[in-house]
Design goal:
homodimer, alpha/beta, UDP-N-acetylmuramoyl-L-alanine:D-glutamate ligase, 5-stranded mixed beta sheet, 37% helix
Chain lengths: 308, 308
């Protein structure tokens, strides 16, 4: 059972989709990563910051999944990071209606002592300096450092982002961000360029069009499961990252073959996440459901052509 | 060795992409379908119409691939169908700059006697009435009728299109067209609706995002091979259709498992088509190259997770 260290937001989300809207509900990258990773036999911890306005039941929900929250700072009288967004009809794009950093503005992550030797470090989307600070606190070199980021940091903290990218093993970004980071339209070329920046592995997420894993000359592709209904895409990317890093922490083998499996597990879990608002679907997700859908993934992609 | 009957345009294309432009070159749906199908052991024929302005060498190119052209009417003094288009920078969209129907305006397809018992009929994109006329000329019920179409006919001849769709086994359309035809955004639902209209199998082409095959409750997905360079997408969809129908004609087994293989072969051949202008890459494509890239497809998609 490997140790997984998760860094990212625990937050309030308020979401509107064509199918309905929510009040403030539990959200945040670390939340989704943690819930997804809890599907595997891992010893995981979240490093984050929240205000004391965050209902205790939200924290309990994570604790009940055996996630160590000793690294979550709770600021007395502070307010928790809040994001409000509205999805367009095709669910592929969204408008951010509000972002309140609140306590996140002064976040100095502190890695708990007993996770300074984590096997896998999953750096959720945050300021690159915050991500870097976590790497610097590790006592032993982790087997794998995975970083998720987004275009916001390419626009506003590119130098800092390039700095942290030098120190990681896997980057997960979406296709538009890969193009922005490299000025290459071809994702094959973009992945080559990104590997030169540091990471040995590049995961390019294409939303409903699946995800690509690049490593040297090798490429692997996992489709998104075609669904009758996509209800709310919020957290799908983080759930992917959680499944990916959780599986690797549980299996403890760093190889292209095993990273392929991790991509499949990440895609599989993300396919559940989008079926309900926020964390709803992930909270009570059963192992049997997960396993059953893995069969669907296999049927979806496996073929039997005799090769010459 | 099965018989494959191909109906579609043999045409002049004039193409501009971000990488260059052409004069009038050989194009047309039947051309691309025929070239792709010629990669398999098939006995194929094209039914089409051209003017005598089409260089004899273009027809020889097809004849040299053992494609029977006795069903290609050559109109004396007539002009061949001509299309001119310009691709945008991302190559995912294009503007049609000119369309001259010419001889195609009076096209009455005549199926050669020796192909009225074809095993597979591949109806390339044409007016639905033209496609229907070919079906009506068949003496024996083909093992499989495959129809390709596009949004133009949904806009301008929807009733006729719905009529021909009742009589076919497989439809190949792109994602936007599947949505237009059914008013369903979810491709899973769209494919369900289309199956109710007639075809037992629905292939939804997503360009660089791959292709989906639907049949009852079953779904299969083939990615597009991630390429360093996509040079000219013209003919990729037709090449897919040619690989798909050619493989089925050669293997003579109509089952979901074999249609999955056909989708992979179609995707594989389409990945070559886009590497050069027009038919350039397909003209001299070697079996070894095709087989080698099939290995890449396998590596790209196959994984080994133990399922419970």
């Amino acid at each position: 059972m490997g140790k997984l260290l998760i860094v990212g937001t625990v937050a309030f989300d308020e979401i509107e989709t064509p199918f309905g809207k929510t009040d403030k509900i539990l959200g945040g990258a670390a939340t989704f990563i943690g819930l997804a990773a809890s599907q595997f036999e891992v010893d995981s911890a979240i490093v984050s910051i929240v205000g004391d306005d965050l209902p205790e039941e939200y924290l309990d929900l994570l604790r009940n999944k055996n996630i160590d929250l000793s690294g979550v700072e709770i600021v007395k009288g502070g307010k928790t990071f809040y994001w409000k967004g509205k999805y367009h009809n095709d669910l592929n794009s969204r408008d951010t209606l509000a972002t309140e950093l609140n306590t996140l503005a002064d976040f100095n992550p502190v890695v708990p002592d007993n996770f300074k030797d984590a096997d896998i470090v999953m750096l959720g989307n945050l300021h690159p300096n915050t991500q870097m600070s976590v790497i610097e606190q590790m006592k032993a070199t982790p087997k794998l450092i995975v970083l998720d980021t987004m275009n916001f940091w390419m626009d506003n903290a590119l130098e800092e982002l390039e700095q942290v990218i030098k120190h990681i093993d896997v980057i997960t970004i979406n296709d538009a961000e890969a193009r922005q980071l490299t000025d290459e339209y071809s994702l094959v070329k973009a992945a080559e360029e990104i590997q030169k920046m540091g990471p040995k592995y590049v995961v390019i997420k294409k939303g409903e069009h699946g995800a690509l894993l690049f490593h040297n000359e090798k490429v692997f592709f996992a489709p998104a499961l075609p669904l009758e209904e996509v209800f709310d895409p919020t957290g799908a990317g983080d759930t992917f990252a959680g499944g990916f890093s959780g599986y690797l922490a549980a299996t403890d083998t760093i190889s292209f073959a095993n990273l392929k499996n991790a991509v499949i597990h990440g895609s599989n879990l993300a396919s559940f996440c989008v079926e309900r608002f926020g964390t709803r679907r992930m909270q009570d997700l059963k192992r049997e459901e997960v396993n059953q859908r893995l069969h669907q993934f296999k049927t979806l992609t496996q073929f039997d052509i005799e090769l010459k």
